[in-house]
Amino acid sequence: MCHPCPRTPVTLDSGPNTPPTTVTAAKPALAPPPGHHHDLVLGDLGFIKLPEGRGIIGSPDDEPGRSPDERQQLFSLFDPLFILTTEVLQSQYELRMHENPSHLKQPLLPVTNVAWDDAMRFCELLSSEIPEYMFRLPTEHEWEYAARAGIKTPFSVTPDKQNHLLTAIGKHAAGDHDFLVRFLKSYAVFGDSKPHPLGKRLPNAWGLHDMHGNVWEWCDGVGHTDPDHRVIRGGAFTSTDVWGVRSAVRGEEFHDTRKDSIGFRIVAIPK
User: Fold this and answer.
1) In 119-155, which positions are buried (b, 16+ CB within 10 angstroms) versus exposed (e)?
2) What's the Cα-to-Cα distance from 231 to each of 115, 142, 177, 222, 252, rounded to whole Å?
3) What per-residue confidence (pLDDT) applies to 224?
4) How many other CB atoms are found less than 10 A from the CB of residue 68?
5) Which pLDDT score, from 0 to 100, does residue 228 have?
6) Which portions of the chain are predicted below pLDDT 70?
7) How far apart are CA 224 and CA 233, in angstroms?
8) DSSP-assigned states of every residue in the chain
9) pLDDT of residue 268
């Protein structure tokens, strides 16, 4: 006779002023990565709530590294949306998918070598595990809105570092390229041979880590050049130039593409 598996409590924490709610999850839950601010904690997943409002996405015509598909436009967010603080960890993926496709295997590295279809399956399983929320990939507009965190410059840094960033960009324009590279290494992983553990770089103004570089992130929606393409955002450790990890940078890959430089992050929407 089969016996049901024990169910493990999961804490739903919607912010510092909201008492946590406990539900049961069908799979064992780990703790989310320590040392980060979270507005919502669902087992081993920590999320930031995106502020509602409007922001400009895309890049101006004179931004270095700009491509023609980065047309500037206004984006508005008026519904509650929580986005994962980091890219999905290998440990979080393996817990639900019972496999780890990453070639370099470490629990605190981003899961890589995952197709867009794999990421969608992960979201489906998570939505079954925690039915109070719907999980999906962010649209590329949502992704860039989160990456910019209300900042119009090519890179998003904490407010206290804005003047440092403007100085670094000015030095780059004057020919001192190394100064900008050294400054952004505190926020982004690029020009490297492998991904780095998540959450070790400084966050942007909204507390999100690894939006610049480390690994490209799958987004929801069809690409501009082929109906079988899906959008990737953010650049990766393989990006050789600092302008390849800008907030506006984008790429496209076939939905079944698997690379060591592509991972994903998810959003949670209350039902």
Assistant:
1) bbebbebbbebbeebebbbbebbbbbbbbbbebeebb
2) 12, 12, 29, 7, 5
3) 85
4) 6
5) 94
6) 1-31, 33-35
7) 14
8) ---PPP-EEEEE---TTS--EEEEESS---PPPTTS--SEEETTEEEEEPPPEEEEES--TTSTT--TT---EEEEE-S--EEESSSPBHHHHHHHHS----SS--TTSBP-S--HHHHHHHHHHHHHHSTTEEEEPPBHHHHHHHHHTT--SSS---GGGHHHHHHHHHHHHTT-HHHHHHHHTTT-B-SSSS---TT-SPP-TTS--S-SBSSEEEEEEE-SS-TTEEEEES--TT--SGGGG-TT-EEEEETT---TTEEE--EEEE-
9) 98
Q: Which pLDDT score, from 0 to 100, does residue 6 have? A: 35
Measured in whole angstroms, the distance separating CA 39 from the mean position of its chain's CA atoms is: 15
Distances (CA, A) of 151 to 13, 132, 147: 27, 32, 9
Q: What is the pLDDT of residue 30?
A: 64
Q: What is the pLDDT of residue 33?
A: 65
CA distances from 46 to 121, 228, 244 (A): 19, 31, 27
For residue 235, give both structure tokens: 């650049």
First to last CA, the chain: 36
Place of tokens 């700009």: 66
In this prediction the pTM is: 0.87
Residue 145: the pLDDT is 97
